[in-house]
Each structure stands twice: as structure tokens, then as C-alpha cells.
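Two folds, back to back.
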Amino acid sequence: MSKKKKGKKSRGKRRLLIAFILIIIFTAFGYYVYSGLPSLEQLENPKPQLASTVYTIDGEQLGKYFIENRIEKHFSEFPPYLIQALISTEDRKFYSHWGVDIERFGKAMVKNILTFSREGASTITQQLAKNLYKLKSRKENIAQTIVRKMREWLTAIQIEKTYTKNEILELYLNVSYFGRGAYGVESASRIYFNKSVNELSLPEAALFVALLKSSSNYNPIRHPVDALLRRNLVMRNMVVMHELTEANYRKLKKEPIILAKRRTKGSKSIAPYFMEYVRKKLSALSKKYNYDLYRDGLNIYTTLDSRMQKIANEVVAEHISKFQKMFDGKWDWDKNKELLATIIDEDIRNSKEYKEAKTKEEKARIYNSLKYDKDFIENVKKDATRIQVGFVVIDPSNGQIKAMVGGENQVFGRGLNHVSEIRRQPGSAMKPFIYTVAISNGYYPAFTLLNQKFDYHGWSPSNFSENEYGGYTTLRFALDHSLNVIAGRMTTSNIAPPNQVVKFAHKMGIRSKLAAVPSIALGTSEVTPLELTSAYGTIVNKGVHVSPTSVTKIEDRNKILIDKFIPVYTEAISLQTASVMTNMLQSVVTSGTGRGVRRYFSYPAAGKTGTTQDFADAWYVGFTPDLVAGVWVGFDDHRVKFTNTYGQGAIAALPIWAKFMGKVYKELNIPIKYFHLAPGVVRATFCKATMDLGDPKIATSKCPVTVTDIIIAKDMPGKSDMHPDDNKIKKEKNKGSSGW
């Protein structure tokens, strides 16, 4: 074969190889472009991220859960001039092109090359493709930009095949970003002007079209002049497209941009702790219902009453502010130097800087730097001595949480929820459960026990004051004045055995583990404020415990019901026992440790104070016929305590309860209701002489001094076989999912 023929053959092979390589490259490139396109399912069923909205029981918007703050609206709800302004500025051939405007693209490319500018040529459909399917990344090189543009084109064409022009505009205005955390024009309307999109004026609508070009450069707060000029340019475009007259344009362009009053930065809800409480509950159910709390635009209807919540915020803030000043004036770090040194050491070792240090030398440097940093030490002192609070209000008849203050900062919410996420010793607030067992076991308010110190295997409880000892004392008086000795005698006998107290407390609503030991009488086992308050609700609710409920129902974005939630009803104690306990706890408010309630609230009420050792925790839990509420006041660090008697439950916690009830009943016009004795609970007259001897007997004509009190009639069992609300309970169980 000649050299000439061999050369031709060789060149032919090279061409085939090059062609083959090019085919592979283009195929791979095509596959790479195609692989980044949205699927047919995604195109036909686009799912823009929608904020889930939370509502109170009285119809107020409480807050939202979102990644992108978006509210969806239909095309028919957009004002015509919003659509006209959009098309006039962003895509004048929108109704005639098939997703890509080739002529506009070509002109833009020539202009960009000749003037070194960056004029866009994307159609509305292309912009929708980019926004809806996240086709653009933050940082792109030239190659990535080319690939992205190709994907935009292909996706835009598919979108045009799938949707009508109006549907495309609807999607576009619902997914676009307008700045200030607003995704979608409806969300933007509410944030910028505090109105719905259908209420926008023409200049306001034009501003949103202006923001589409750059929500940063045309931000009306940071760049008011640029925003005004761009808005007017949008309206000028409407004149060019014959959608607005020249005369009207001249008039409208003079209108200033007047924004709604901006909310305080970080302010999300009047009940941030409740919002977080609900979020955790709903997140736990997401797999069951197959929803995304942050993207699916759910409508969540809660039990919270916005009016009660605002009053709770106000009362707590006022009380804690005054109490903090009182505490700061009495606390002395010089007397607690060892504690301060320990806390500083712990805070340094738990700091982010210290934990991220990689070498011992670096850790030592950071440690020594912070240890002698005055600002750091002052912050440590302030945090350690910050008084915290947990306050929750529940409707005892249905378990609905009406108000929740989870910490000293009710505006932003931070740290633990001191209603549901802390466990503390309840002190004497635990005593109603001891007395409930005693009443259920056949004892009664007039029954007497010796009010003198005793020793039970080394345990010897003491009353708060040395002046509180005496002879035989009735159970009613002992509960009124929170006598530890009497409560201790009850749990060290068959009157209220600890294992029985634990059983009753759990049935009544306590969920925490309780130690079945005699000291349970003094509240040594830790509980949460939420469960303790809920358990008190069992007493006022005629012996029926109702589980705390925070959400009534959930709907999807189209307001189709996903599920509704009902409380769980459980008969815990008899109607008669509950009635006697209600009556005894009324006495606590009338003449016992809870009488401070009467300074602020004169309606029928019952409750119990609680104070733990060395004034570490202050409690007050009480109820009216309509509401049960619990207050805990203390510190996150157990080692920091109130310095003297001002840390008692009656002083540190009770005023919050009483002031709240006083304002709620007055401002919400809640009618007065009274407590009534249950059937089978009767009044009896006892001979005081026998009571003083520890052997109460019904009075006869020979008894000179008598005492009248209530008792469950002998023919009425301590625990009824059938509770009056049993039929209601059975019906409710079949209505929906269990509440929480």
C-alpha cells in the first residue's frame, strides 16, 4: 500500500476517533444537563415551600414555622395592575413566547459583549424555573452558568407545556423572594404594608415588581431613593405598554413609599415557649401524617387564648422585674465566693472557645483569659442570678392550655421551657395528694393528729416555725397552714401510705417518677410545673384527669382536615373525694398560706403554696371553677437560692397567680361561679372536746362546744363505682386522636 493511501486511512481513523470522543463528550454533557432537570412529577406537582401558620383559639395568628416565609394566593386574588406591572417590566412578550425569548436573548448578548454590561434576558417562565427548582447556586463559574441557563431553558419549555400562562404567573408571584424574609407576594404585602395583596395600591404593587430585580439594592428601608426611582420606572413601563395613562403616572409617581410600622427585630410570637412546645409535639407526629412542618403550609389551630397570654406576659414581667431588684439587693457574691469560682470554672469549660481548642496550651490560654475577663465574669454573675419563672394556665374541663410563660424573657424566648422542661421539688405543693389519699381512705377534714415532732427511722420532719406546734390538730388546719409534721404522720401510717400516694398522684396527672418514701409528704420528688398544674385540675374537674392539650386540629394548605385532637379523660379519684379536697383547698386561700390571693382576687378560689428547702423553689398552684394555673419561681442553677423568707411560695409565686386571675376575670368578663359540694358530701357537727383528745366524735346535746365540717356520708363509698362524667368520657374516646 502506498504511503499516500496509508496517510488517508490514518487520518480517517483519527477523524472517527475524534468524532467518537466528541459524541461521548456531548452525550455526557447532555446527560449532565438533563440529570439536573426537575422530574416530570416535580413539574406536574410543584411544591413551593409554604410557611405553616399557627392560630390561637380566639382566632389570632400566633406565629409561623418556616424555612421560607411564604403564603400562597390564587391568580384571581392578584390585582390586575400587579400583573400588568410585572409583564411590562419583566417580560413584555410573556403571552406570545413559548418559555424562551430568543430575540430578547440575542439582543442582550450583543449588548453585553459590546458594553461589558450584564443585562438579563430571562423570561418570567425562566425565572420561575430557577426559583421553583433551585437551579441557581450562589457561586457560579462560566461553565456552570452555561449549564444552568440550558437547564432553565429546557425547564421553562416544559413548564409552558404543563401550565397555562395565568398558572405560571400565579406560581411565579407565590415563590419569588421580595426581601425582609418574605417569599411570595402575599407574605411581602403583609410584612411591608400590613395588608393582603388584593388590598395593594398600584404604587405598592409596582414596588414589589421593583424588588424582583434586587430585593437588596431596592430595599425601601435601606435605599429609599433607589427604591422610589425603580418603582417609578416600573410604572413608566406600564405607560409604555399602554396599561397606565401619562396623567395617572405623573400623579402616582409623586406618592411616597409608606411602609407599615416594622416589628421589633426577633419578635416572633407573644408565646414563644408555647410555639416551641407545639413545634416539638408536631415534629414528633410528622412521620405519622407524612407532612413537613416547615414546607407544607399547614394550618395549626391551638388552644392558647391570646388575651390570656398577653395578660400572663404582663403580670409575669411586672412581678419578676420587681422581684429581681429585690433579690439583687440581698444577694452578696462576696459571701458566695466559692460558688462563684465554681460557676466561672464550669462556664469557661462549657464555652465554645474552650471546647473547640485543640491543644492543652490553647485551652489554658483561653481559660486564663476568660477567668480574669471582667465582662465575662459579670455576665456569669448575671446569668446565674437571673430569676426564672414557669407559668401555665389550663382549662381543667378539657385540658386546653390557655397561656404559657416558659421563662423570664417572654418576648424572644430562650433556654429551657420552665413549664415543661424542668423538674423541681414541689415542696408543700405536693401535700394535696397526701390529703387526697387520706380522704379516699375514709378520713375527713375534722380528723385530728398530734402536731408534735416525731422520729421515724431517723426521719423527723419539722414545721416551718417553732410556733406551729401544739396538741391535736385537724387535717383542715394542717393543710391550711402547711404543717409538715401532720403530713409526715400521714405518710408514716396507714392514713396515706407513700406507695398509695404515688399511685394516686400518677392517676391524677403526675408523669414524673416519684419515690414512694415518707418524705414524699414534703415534695422531695421532682415534677414539672405543667404536670403538677394538670394534676390539680383533676381535683376541680370532679376527680377526672384531662391530659394537657395544646392543639385542637391540623389542616393542610387547602384547609383539608389532617386530624383533630381531643384530650384523654381518666377517672382518677371519686367525685366526693375531689369535692372534699376542693373545699379544703378553698380554706387555704381563705385562712391559710394562700390568703395573699385575696389582695388581688376576690372570686371563689382554691390552691396551695410550696416552698423547698433553703428557699430554692417557690410554687403556687391553684384553681377557680373555670381555670387551673401553676407558678414556679426559682433559678436555673440549684445552688443559687433566695436568701430568706421572701423566697416563700406565698410571696415569690402566689402574686403572679392572683394578679393574673384578677385581670383575666375582669378584662374578659368571666362570670362568677361557685364551688358546690358533691352529692354524698354533707356537713357534720363534731364535739370539740373529743377532737382535742384525738378522737373526733359526732356532737351530742351534752357537747358544750361544737365544730362543723364536711364529711363523706357513710352510705356513700369513698370511691364511686360510676363517675357522673363516665358516659362523656367513653364518647370522647371515639372522636379523634389523643391530645397532648
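---
second:
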Amino acid sequence: MKKIYFSLLIIACFYSCSKDLEKYPLDAPSTATFPKTESEMKAALIGCFAPLNFRFQENPYIIWMDMYSDIAANRDNTPNSLWGMPTAGNVNNFWNSFYTVISRCNFLLDNFGRIEGASQKTVLETEATARFLRAYSYSVLTQLFGDVPLVTKTLSLSEAYVSRDSKSKVVDFILEELDKAAENLPDNNQPNTMVVAKVAAWGLASRVALYNERWSKAIEAANKVISTEGKQVLLNNNYEAITQRAGKTSKEVIWAIQFNYNDIFHETPLSFRSRMAGGFSNRIPVQALIDSYECIDGLPIDKSPLYNPQKPFENRDPRLGKSIALPGSIYYGYQFETNKDSLQCWNYNVNPPIRVPNLDATHNFASFSGYCWRKYADPTEQHASRSDINPIVIRYAEILLNYAEAKIESDQLDNEIYNAINKIRLRAGIPIISAGKTKQQLRSIVRKERKIELAGEGLRYFDIIRWKIAEKLLEGPCYGRIPRGYLSSAPSIDENGTPDYSLVSNNSQMRIIQTRTFVAGANYLWPIPDIEMQTNKNLKQNPGY
């Protein structure tokens, strides 16, 4: 009896004293009180940004995205192997990273009432930024997975088994959130900071609306950005600089993911640079992109009298040589030459220049396509294996093309379409588009322009998916250059800027980098990650997986 009484006494004491035992941690914030101060609020917002720094091997996810498309290749994997099954690592990483952003934004938005001592302006801007980040995360998720769970608050464990909401409903939410965010985001566009400005919310809204065929909303949102031209946004006169360190502060950049050398850096130059420059050359542009660039007369290479198959890089759109390291050019101080007979090349990093063994022709893992990226590979970077170039999420040229495409697809064929496209072409140094084009002609022009202007910036995959042309572009062989020599004639170029090599007499000599697979009935959407399907029985898998 004494033992029983003593046990009951201990239990009674435990319950009566339990409130006194509930102590908040002394060395870290508690979720019961955090965020309470302005500094904690700012720390919470930084936590919302942090998952967006996720990388695949050396590359931030934005730069990596083009490896899924027809214009670039990852030497180590075919696109389908990276996202074409529920257990693929990229599938899980995208899902987890963006839902982590959403979860953190939800927590911050749920708890603004706790914050003491911060000005109303600071609180409103922080809230608007969290709304923007949550909307951006949902925009990527819906484009990849279609219907996704729309979670707008911090969930308890019992609420965690959510089902998928329709893509249309989630897009409605995204556009509403971006409108709310724009009301309180700052006016001033500060590209090389973590500040998200109004133009970023409008720019993202133009993209989301365009991708979901909400033409009037896309036009309206893009127009708001265009109205700030010369103040908050401006086309950079130096196209090549936009994706280099020199472009980090350019007003063409509307929003970019922030990196720095000290703690949050990426190693994109390692995977982009040539072998002579000490790189791996395993993330590369492919022949189908090279041949999409027009000649300086504004005609495709299969129509232009200026195109010479034996000198294929002459008389071409200047953006070709500014985006891509071409054979015969200087790249990181070396003569870049990928013809397999070029056993030596010039090293211009010494004075006088000297001839040295050419690894870009002889190394087993030199560029499989014969080309390397110049975008996001800056020879002035101080660290051989580190980069602090900010991957661009939204820039002004895209907004102009969003605007033009939405006008075309909504049958508003007016001069504003030509103005938007021609601003970009004038900056590039190629002939402007003359008036009087049909809808079909303008659609072709804007699709080709997006392919060239935005190459290497992570948007191509989304374009070919939403235009429903991926089944043609991502099925079959992916080509590099002929290892010794050039194509005998120009390939034919279709209305989307896609080369067809079937009638080129020596096409069999082209290097096949990889053979790709795309299943039209399934692959226009990614699968829901397998681990999510196992742990949440309320989720239903996408068709074909």
C-alpha cells in the first residue's frame, strides 16, 4: 500500500508541476514564441529564402533546368532518367524544396501577430515577400506536377494527410497572392539583394498567367512591368554581361537567387568550362541549339544566303557567340577548338602565347557536343571552383516576350507586339520584325526568340512542355557536332526553330551524345514522389507512372 501511495503521489506531483516544467529553450527560439522581434522576423524570412539555394551537383536548380530540355545535355544522365520515375532524386528534391519554402512561409504568415517593435511598413513588406515566395514555389510545383496540395497554413499532424487540389485552383491562388504581395512590396528594384520588388510580383504573374493561357492577365501583369521601363527595369546594352558577375546589379534582372563566395556559393563553372580551362564540360549546349540561331540578315540558316556550312559560325546572330563557346573562339584564355584533329591549341594566358596540347580535342571527357556555355561561366571569377553569380529567375526580356506571346494568342495583333520583340532584337543587333505578319508567323517568331534569347536560363523546358512539342524534341538522339569537320549543308528549320538533320548528306557523322525517351501519355507531368505516395494515401499518382 505504501508503494502504491508513493506512486500515486509522484504521478499527482508530475501533473500538478507539469506547467512549471514547460520551459522554453534558452539557447534558441521556440515555435511557441518565434518570431517575436523584428530581428527574429527577418531571420524567419531568410529561412523562407534558404531552400531556394538547392543545387544538383554543381548547379543551382534554375541553371540545371535546361538539362531537361532539347537545347542542352547532361553528359551523366538523360532527361527522362532524372524525372521520369517516382523514385528519381530530382523529383523528390523539387517537391521537398518547394514545399519547405511553402511550409516556412505559412509559419511566418500565421504568426505575424506575435511580432513586437517592428514598424508597420517593415511587417507589411515582410509579409508580402513571404506571399511572393509561396506563390513562386506553387508556380514551379504546378508546372512540374499539375495538381498539387494547396496548403496555406501550418498543419498539425492530424491535418497532414492532404489530397491534391486542381491546378486551376492553385493558379487562382498564385495570381491572387501575387496581387496582394504587389500592394506592399517595395517600388525599387534592387537586383543584387534579397529584396523582392513590385516588378517581381508582376513579372511572375505574367509568367504564371501565360503558362496557364490566361492571356488577359498575362498582358495586364506584363504591362505593369513595362510601365516602369527606364526606372525599375531596363534592357542591358551588354547582353553577354547579364549572366556574368558584371550583370548582378543590372536593372534587367528582376529577381535572382542570391549567392556569395563566403558561405552560399555554387560551382557551375566547374561543370561548364572546357577541359583546357580546368572544367568538366559535362553540362553542355547541343547542336540543335547552335543551328537555331539565325543569320545576321534575320533569316534561319536554311534560308539565308549568308550561311556557309564550312564556316557555320560566321554571319550569325551575335547572341550565339555571347551565349556559347564556339570552336575557334577564345575561352578562358585558350583557343577553344574541338575538332579531333586539332592536337594543339594556343594558350593566351601567357605572353607571348604558346602552343600547348589541346585537351578539348583529345580528352575522353571533353565536351561531347563540341561546345561549352558562356552563360554563367565567367572568366573573371576569383575562385576556380566557386561562383557567386546569381541565377536569374526573372528578367525583363522574358517579360517583353511574355507580353508579346499573350497578345498573339489572344488575337490582339497590334504594333505593341512588334515593339516588344524588336526591343530585344535591336539589342541583339539583328534585323527587326516588320509589320503585317499573321498570327501563325508571329507565334513562330516569338517561340524562336524565346529559345535564343533565354537559352541556358532554365525556361526552355517549361516552354516545350506547355507548347506540347516535347514529345517531338525529347524523343530520339541528341546530337553534338561532327568530330572532324562540319555538316555538308544546313538542316531544315521548322516553325519552332527546331533543326531536322534527316536530309543532310553527312548527318551520320554527327556525334550522338545520348538517346532520349519521352512518353507523351505520361511525361508532360512529373510523377508524385514515391515516398509521398507511400506516406500519404490521400495522394493519387499522375497518369502513366
